[in-house]
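Narrative of activities, Objective 1.

The group set out to show that a structural description can be obtained from nothing but a protein's sequence at a throughput compatible with the screening campaign. Below is one input-output pair from the validation batch, recorded exactly as produced.
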Amino acid sequence: MTLLTGFEPVIDKNCRVLILGSMPGAASLQKHQYYAHPRNAFWPIMDDLFGIKKDKGYNEHCALLSASGVGVWDVLKQCKRPGSLDSSIRAGSEQVNDFEKLFAGHTAIRAVFFNGGTAERLYKRNVLSSDNIHYHGLHYHRLPSTSPAYASMSYQEKARQWRSMLDYLAI
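Output recorded for this entry:
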């Protein structure tokens, strides 16, 4: 099984909110774009929240999101996983991203939002449990996964819950 490698963060120096997924899915890895699966609700929700025109390309979406104070990254830098499902990540193959470096270089971050429960569990187990890392003052929130695999919640309900992120951009 091949070791999968994620992407660099989409972030700028003014980032106040960081959104963390677990690891890019197969469609995202193939296109080298976060949330590239056509049925993933991430970009439509961001478009709705920030008034981004849907005809913008990926790079423009990323730039507009960054300009709004939002960064995007994943908890995992590498892992082994057949397919795209988080439940298929091979235990023991996970390698987390360097959050100590990220937070040291982006001190305006006030809140971290997890795109689903797996991202939250991976972060809490592999990042917050590290003795040498202290992220005091950050607010942590799990939001419903935007993945098409999480179909038990409607788009409207997902978008309503994601709207809570806007409160942290006003701080």
